[in-house]
Design brief:
The structure is a homodimer of 534-residue chains.
Chain A (H helix, E strand, L loop, with lengths): L3 E2 L2 E4 L3 H13 L5 E4 L11 E6 L2 E6 L4 E2 L4 H9 L4 E3 L5 E5 L8 E3 L8 H18 L13 H5 L3 H8 L3 H15 L8 H9 L5 H4 L9 E3 L4 H11 L4 E2 L4 E6 L4 E5 L3 E4 L1 E4 L3 H4 L3 E3 L4 H7 L7 E7 L4 H4 L2 E7 L9 E4 L8 E7 L1 H5 L2 H16 L8 E6 L33 E3 L12 H19 L6 H11 L18 H17 L3 H18 L2
Parallel strand pairs in A: 1-14, 2-3, 2-15, 3-11, 8-18, 12-16, 15-22
Antiparallel strand pairs in A: 4-5, 6-10, 7-10, 8-9, 12-13, 13-14, 17-20, 17-21, 18-19, 19-20
Helix pairs in contact in A: 1-9, 1-15, 2-15, 3-7, 3-17, 15-16, 17-18
Chain lengths: 534, 534
């Protein structure tokens, strides 16, 4: 077996790896860059597919689909590649079902669900506490967060049990965790949860589909185009599909990367695959124990996404937005749905089955349960669909889960520094290593850029500006006293906001039994308290 | 590449794999059994080595070393193989250092540490609560434990924060967790902790070195002999060292097992390696998602073991047992030490550096810090040692950690059934899959037996007795209503014990400020409350 020689090998042809390759090429066209990918396609956790629809065939995303206006890294890339975005439709009444199969199905119009007064107060209070904690989190080095050990020693579930008062809010948080992470609140460190929210600018941006939040825009033609365009720029001859990396050896001169059939030599490697897959690669010399302990403890979520197409968007005609939110206590397998009508007008809904619920149903039962839930919440028209398309990301080879790997308790304070720290010629990227919108497509792009700059600093430092060289140094020196204790995105609630929140709480408490006045309070809370913090 | 044909292939030549092979051979001598091992030795997490000592060279264990009289599976094997055990020396004063570098170093003679009265009461109360919970745990199917979801949604740390009152007890629990699991209390599910203790008959048996506990006996000549004798019985020609399994394919007729250089076909496979290593093997068809999610969330502990030899056991001459217990708050890297004088009289100490502390020191600093700690606690003679031998199990290839994999929160209630559930021709063993003394050598032996019986039930059911066939069915049908809600070993505290504990608590509270009377209370607590429950 003779080895091909390259300058840089990138493991994984998702957004992170291809963006790293793209940046390397842009800075130094002479660099020989090879991207190795286990799957038979580019895009990683983004994949777009043709689905039968009202006017023939149309295209939908079965993986990552949304971007938001504070996600600067992905927005710049979208602009550079000449792609277009369009708003997530969210006009009309939303449906909420919590508290068991027999509980009342409620509708609401605000971005905050139709919570009962007590739950709303509970939610406001909890949100205020979590956002205050978020503001103290050091995303770059979470061990520097005040009280880090304690926050990392408990699960999100334990925090909620201690600080939420109402059963409904606890159920809501479970739903949010499933929708955002594909996981239960019991499975992640509370400090990790705070770090993740801080990297997005607060908790609400993770949950909403309003301006600045995670579910704001979609990409016309689908998100997989981003990776396809990048592969085009990098050159398809430099992207090998069906080439899963099995081992990486390093010596004084070379890194040697092997797949089942080939061997490659190079000067630097960027590993971009999710931590649980990076952990399956054989490394020689072995990686530092801390790195191994870290990647062995970053479970990936379980998310099943479905797209269901219709002749027309009957929900809109009924004044519904298409958004349904259901708790695990109901008999619906759905966590959340949204309108997914295409820019060319083909009516569709998109939905997610996530966390524990994704393991509870067989494929056939699940489909039947999804349809009957849609009928229950949107009306009998939901049964007359054109096509039901589903993707269980746990079953996707070289993904094994979606949307993101979280951290179990007790990791961030001990092992976190090894998340981004290069090991010799090995550099680490992937959305899990991002410090802004970690876990999202934007984080993938940021992490690819950061790793590319690290490699350039090693192989051709002259291609970097002074600022970039300093940024690389700062990233490599996490733990230095100069570190800022907060993400630049972090939505710092001011003292004023805190005072407003407390006042609102008192007022809301007073109004608990006055339903008419309550609607105004809700609107006020939504506009004044929530919007100001993001 | 032509494939060799075998009946059964066993992945891993530790106690579990070799015991499975041994049992298969005993039941059906015609079965062609091959054991594949990545390391260049047998024994897995047991390894014995020659170390310079007072009278020349002697042999010590650098991995698993203790057995106890309730560990029936390993005791039967020891007997069958004709090996001998000897008691762990524990006569004399023990040293305890908790509460920071400047806290008083205390000594005590009982099996329970020299706790202050308030801490002793706190400990009694906590132990009583934990043992009561242990008695409710269904080891075979932890999701059947009352309140399972809640117990599995919190870390051990969170439980201790809620239920222990004194800072010293919290520090003690940290020390116990490090010593038993090589891990911090923040890193494991509280339900997992309860299950682990229940599988050992309660919490105290995990911690003590008295009759029936985990640290009762050692094996003359070392524990690796067990695996070496088993390999002898199985036939060394059937054990291939340096043969790490990289992939397992299954079709209707065969399982195909590959290493870097060879391919084997067989009818059944038993995978015995620790879960985080089993997760690195490539499986086709892919394993069920639940199994993948489980093994991705079972972190292994970090344990460094040292043996230090001396001209004479100077600690005994001073009336000390050699047992030192130090908290993470002190400047000592040691979690715990014991006398390790060999049966032929070569003086030695054995000690453990575990959990977070195992990551904090470089090898050179650590050795210096260990010696200076021994000098501090045992006297200046500790500096004049013959030899210092150390093993960092995190750096051992095809182990990557020791002594055991735990479960992070949120797993037992969702994914646990896949721990032992066969996947086609694939069967799972290893101490993590045991239901009695899970995590110990005895658990490894039990799990190997269970997996061997599963394979026999498939390949040659006539070799099984009726009881064995039923046992296999019971094990495969975890979740059936006939399941007993408690391990047979579980030390059920009776109502009487509970009453005694409450009475003792009241008495102890009364005696808090009467130090003379306190010694009697301690002895009483130790004899009446603790011993009765195990």
């Amino acid at each position: 077996m003779t080895a091909e020689i390259w300058d840089v090998i990138i493991v994984g042809a998702g957004l992170s790896g291809l963006n790293a390759a793209h940046l390397l090429k842009k800075r130094n066209a002479k660099l020989r860059i090879l991207v190795l990918e286990g799957k038979d396609r580019v895009g990683g956790r983004t994949v777009s597919t043709n689905i039968p629809a009202a006017n023939g065939i149309d295209r939908w995303d079965l993986g990552g689909q949304w971007v938001g206006s504070t996600q600067t890294h992905i927005l710049e890339l979208i602009k550079e590649l000449g792609l277009e975005t369009f708003l997530q439709f969210n006009i009309g009444k939303k449906v909420l079902h919590m508290g068991g199969p027999d509980a009342r199905v409620r509708t609401y119009r605000t971005s905050i669900p139709a919570l009962s007064p007590a739950v709303l107060i509970d939610f406001t209070h909890l949100l205020w506490k979590i956002d205050r904690l978020c503001a103290t989190v050091c995303v770059q080095d979470p061990s520097k967060t005040p009280n880090a050990v304690e926050l990392d020693s408990m699960t999100l579930h334990s925090y909620i049990e201690q600080h939420a008062w109402t059963a409904e809010l606890k159920e809501e948080i479970g739903l949010c965790t499933r929708s955002v992470f594909g996981m239960e609140p019991s499975q992640m460190s509370f400090l990790f949860f705070l770090m993740y929210a801080a990297a997005a600018g607060g908790l609400l941006p993770l949950l909403e589909n309003t301006a600045g939040s995670a579910q704001e825009f979609k990409i016309r033609g689908g998100t997989q185009q981003l990776s396809e365009c990048l592969a085009e720029h990098v050159g398809w001859k430099n992207v090998r599909l069906g080439s899963a990396v099995t081992a990486i050896w390093q010596d004084a001169e070379w890194a040697r990367v092997t797949t089942a059939t080939d061997t490659f030599l190079c000067r630097a490697v960027i590993v971009t695959c999710p931590p649980h897959l990076a952990a399956k690669i054989h490394y020689e010399p072995a990686l530092p124990s801390q790195r191994e302990f870290l990647t062995q403890n970053m479970p990936v979520g379980h998310m099943i996404k479905f797209i269901i197409t219709y002749q027309k968007a009957f929900w809109k005609e009924k004044g519904l937005s298409g958004e349904i939110v259901t708790g695990a206590s109901t008999d619906s397998p759905i966590a959340v749905t949204f309108d997914a009508t295409s820019p060319s007008g083909n009516a569709a809904l998109v939905g997610f089955i996530a966390g524990q619920q994704a393991s509870q149903w067989t494929s056939k039962e699940r489909r039947r349960a999804v349809i009957s839930s849609l009928v229950k919440y949107l009306g009998p028209e939901a049964a007359s669909f054109i096509h039901y398309e589903e993707k269980d990301w746990a079953k996707e080879e070289y993904s094994g889960g979606c949307p993101v790997n979280v951290m179990a308790p007790g990791l961030l304070t001990y092992y976190h520094p090894s998340l981004r720290k290069p090991c010799g010629r090995l550099h680490w990227a992937g959305t899990e290593t991002a410090t802004q919108w970690c876990g999202y497509m934007s984080g993938a792009v940021q992490s690819g850029q950061r790793a590319a700059l690290e490699v350039l600093a090693e192989l051709c430092p002259m291609t970097l500006t002074q600022e970039e060289q300093e940024a690389v140094q700062r990233s490599l020196n996490v733990g230095s006293p100069a570190q800022q204790p907060s993400s630049t995105l972090s939505g710092l609630p001011t003292r004023k906001t805190a005072v407003v929140a407390v006042l609102m709480l008192s007022a809301a408490l007073f109004l608990v039994h006055r339903p008419n006045a309550l609607l105004k309070v809700k609107a006020y809370l939504t506009n004044v308290v929530f919007k100001k913090t993001v």
